[in-house]
């Protein structure tokens, strides 16, 4: 079974108008269950657009997107995925815990279950003590961690992340990377991860998909095998070899 | 405690300014190039505060009830009309804003008329509405209609802006949760609109008071503070302090409505009061 199939997808914004932009052209991508795939490429290569297509937040101009063997629109309605954006996008009138509870609330989960789940997720991102705070009281990095907890709260089979660690400091980023891998491994979650960072992509992914700009195309897909995804992994020669390989693919 | 003190200080300053101007101002007013730029400071135009206070305690007419009772009764009467007009206007404004947010075509079609509605002179409209009194509704309700007519506007415009305020990412997030229009409205748009709603409600409250006072005058409704201002101002030459007692009543009305909106705001805007940012 495949988690995501993107079949010959193109996306043209403002079609037929003077400001027409071809964001993506002829994209084919298939992601296996439990696979961790990173999308990497220069700004404007359409990696966020591709993520939004998978999320059915926008619809493709041509081609089809299939998520969990269903059309993307159906998968969205059945809440088959969790999503985290570049900006935390928390609701400022809700406490941190209530923010994490939001997707559970919309699924009709009971109050006590919601509370327990939200607290568990906040524990995971290291913000258990801030459950009662409002987002306006937290720093940007903390807000982003809340957004990640929110995306994880429903334990979706597919996780879509659009540069979620972009605003974090290196230490928090590395810790959350390990946490994320742990969560994906234990729950068998498939992940599509958009990033600017080569090292982040290599460390996290089973496969790094390299894209080029205007129109956005997939230029390379590099399978990553590093001995272990921990501190030792970060120092393994294989890790550095793959970083070089991705860098070269981005240059070409 | 500090708030109470600051309120008292504010009243003292206003009182001192009044009496101070009376003391130094030209009794005939200051005229510059044939235009009076500062008002007359004589006892006829600006009675002493003590005179106004005395007048409040004195009977309205010889042997009648004291003025403060009459003014207070009129305030209560007009407050009822204002409240009815304010609530009706706010509800209509809310419904219009939601409809305009939901359907782009309604916004385009309706918004110009919403704005146009406020440029129609009230004095032209009032006799028309007054004609409904006793036919389709009790006379007091026609005044409430005029108050509502002024009150709905800031709510419609402010709330529309508020409902449109959520960022694209917030809307996308709700879409990713498969939340439809209604749930997006309840969970995202409505709470996001509250910071826009409360200033709009304050404006609407003030507009409802003005609408009620002006409405009473132009429809000739008896018993309210608007009518009282007109009646007392006819006696202004012989009894200048009397009309000020009615004006005090109208000001009190405005304060009451503003306070009511603030009371509504406190529980709904709790998150705005925690402002200290934790950086870890």
From TrEMBL, chain A:
Domain ABC transporter: 4-238
The keyword Transport belongs to this UniProt entry's keyword annotation: yes
Residues spanning the signal sequence: none
Pfam families: ABC_tran
GO molecular function, one term: ATP hydrolysis activity
Keyword annotations: ATP-binding, Nucleotide-binding, Transport
Entry protein name: NitT/TauT family transport system ATP-binding protein
Lineage: Bacteria, Bacillati, Actinomycetota, Actinomycetes, Micromonosporales
Automatic annotation (TrEMBL), chain B:
Protein's membrane topology: Multi-pass membrane protein
Alphabetized UniProt keyword annotations: Cell membrane, Membrane, Transmembrane, Transmembrane helix, Transport
GO cellular component: plasma membrane
ABC transmembrane type-1 domain ranges (all copies): 75-265
Cellular location(s): Cell membrane
Top-level taxon in the UniProt lineage: Bacteria
Family: Belongs to the binding-protein-dependent transport system permease family.
Protein name: NitT/TauT family transport system permease protein
Native source species: Actinoplanes lutulentus
